[in-house]
């Protein structure tokens, strides 16, 4: 039986993005192994035991182990492959698990520490490869660039760009599940200030959002005092469909960039973490999105002004949509990465599965 383990964490400060991309990869690997008839088990190891994480793992039949702190020993978890997605772990942890004979894959986007791994994934848009020359072993295979972005199946099942009909005044708001900077609230205030056009607005938050009850009240209030059609989605599992319908999204950087790109969806982007800034600037220069700045430097008035300007310029939105569609192709992504991962640990003809 093949045994695969993921070492990843999520909390209100770092958000849920790391866990979500690992879950996506785990499902991709699971689908390939199920298709080949290979017995396997997949275990997630976290340094917390939250209800949110349990709910994420249970439907997929993934096992869940809890350790006391981020650098705790994981010798009690047997694995043929470890996938490590953790900014606080580096070659020290990775060497320990490799001594058991396991292969090691690292998911990173900071390039700020050395790794000891057989495979490294970094989907950043800029400076591909050069950043890791002195940070990984010579034999490490690197999967680099947004064409290797880990996206859920729903994004590959969307209709092609030419067959998508978008509502011209439909806006999607999403800053991730936890939204630690609470940019959702700022954005809602900006939308409330727009009076001269009726908007359809989908707002996506997680059940662990720090001000969930306030969000519910604010959405109801804005609906009452404006003409906007406001819909709040909590723990939404239909984000790809919402992206198909919207003409513009307001959200954060990070992995949502690639979901928007494959959905050909223009965006106003506010970075909620420092590691999102460089990629967002590059994508803004490529006319994929408009970068507004870091969360603590972006005002309600700035969001409102830029939202109104873009909604009044369909030609600008169309051009941004076309540019976004050139960034993430559909023929790679999660299936390709899953195949490369499994090539590390078993000689099945996975490309035929």
Provide an overview of this structure.
Mean pLDDT is 91; it is low at 348-353. With 353 residues, the protein is an alpha/beta fold. It is 34% helix and 19% strand. The chain has helices spanning 17-36, 51-57, 91-98, 153-156, 183-192, 212-225, 239-245, 256-262, 277-285, 300-311, 314-325, 333-343, and strands spanning 2-8, 40-46, 63-66, 81-85, 103-107, 119-122, 141-144, 170-174, 200-205, 229-234, 248-251, 267-271, 290-294. It folds into 2 domains: 2-151 and 331-352, Rossmann fold (3-Layer(aba) Sandwich), CATH 3.40.50; 154-325, Glycogen Phosphorylase B (Rossmann fold), CATH 3.40.50.2000. The strands form 2 sheets. The protein has a 7-stranded parallel beta sheet with strand order 3-2-1-4-5-6-7. Helix 2 links the parallel strand 2 (40-46) and strand 3 (63-66). The chain is globular. The longest helix is centred in the first third of the chain and has 20 residues, at 17-36. Helix 5 runs parallel beside helix 6 (212-225) and helix 5 crosses helix 10 (300-311).
- Known CATH architecture of the largest domain: 3-Layer(aba) Sandwich
Measured distance between first and last alpha carbons: 18 Å
- Most strands sheet: 7 strands, parallel
Instruction: Compute the number of helices.
Output: 12
CATH topology of the largest domain: Rossmann fold
Write down the CATH class of the largest domain: Alpha Beta
Protein structure class: alpha/beta
Beta content: 15-25%
| Largest sheet, spatial ordering of strands | 3-2-1-4-5-6-7
Low-pLDDT windows of residues: 348-353
Query: Topology as H/E string?
Result: EHEHEEHEEEHEHEHEHEHEHEHHH
What is the CA-atom radius of gyration, in angstroms?
21 Å
